[in-house]
Amino acid sequence: MQRPAGNVARLIQQAKGYDRAAFSELYRLSVTPVYRYLSARLNSVEQAEELTQEVFLAALSGIQSLRAEDEPGLLAWLFQIARHKLADLLRQRYRHPPLAPLDQAEEMEATLPRPEETVELEEERVELRQALERLTPEQREVIVCKYVLGYDNDRTARTVGKNVNAVNQLHHRALASLHRLLCRPEKAVR
Question: Is there a domain that residue 121 lies in?
Fold first, then answer.
């Protein structure tokens, strides 16, 4: 549910004055969408939580640069910070791949899915992430807004900085591309 623009604008102005309560309220309003945005792009809950924390620390230190006066503008600003933090993480991961010794591996609980189910789900998740990465950045943003964050076309348009018609076209093209990438003939035989 979107908040009235006047309330968010007031909170933003108060947060720029380093009002802790106002920033806390902005955090409360936006932490879930930011977390969902990041968790759609990352494989681990811990990484999504950590990056969400980094986004809000950066937002706090950069609140003076915020020009938004409504919730979609605030979220667009936070998503931009999240994109930069995600890019930093991926660069770091590329330069220094994580290594974990076998003796630190945790035992799996019996309530977890069977290994073959886990492998199949992970393969599907990887395949979907790879397909999403092959979309244009704008198409990917529209898909995340609509399916991960649950936004309607109007809110998606305000968040990505496009009009509703452009969002509809990006959405349609993204779904067509995903269908083409994920529904190959050899998959139908399985």
Answer: yes
CB 27 within 8 A of CB 14: no
* Residue 108 forms part of a structural domain: no
The token pair that represents 29 in the structure block: 């309003």
Q: Which domain holds residue 153?
A: 114-190
Task: Say if 105 falls within a structural domain.
Answer: no
Q: Helices 71-95 and 45-61 meet at what angle, rounded to 10?
A: 120
What does the alpha-carbon distance between residue 62 and residue 66 come to, in Å, rounded to a whole number? Answer: 7
Identify the domain boundary among 40, 68, 97: 97
C-alpha 17/C-alpha 30 separation (Å) is 19
Which H or E run includes 90? Answer: helix 71-95
Tens-place pLDDT, residues 15-57: 998 899 999 999 999 999 999 989 888 888 899 999 999 999 9
Give the domain CATH number at 171. 1.10.10.10
- Helix/strand/coil (H/E/C) assignment for every residue in 13-79: HHHHCCCHHHHHHHHHHHHHHHHHHHHCCCCCHHHHHHHHHHHHHHHHHCHHHCCCCCHHHHHHHHH
pLDDT, tens digit (0-9, with 9 covering 90-100), for 93-128: 777 766 655 555 555 445 556 777 777 878 888 888
pLDDT band at 68 (very low <50, low <70, confident <90, very high): confident
Boundary of a domain, candidates 33, 65, 97: 97
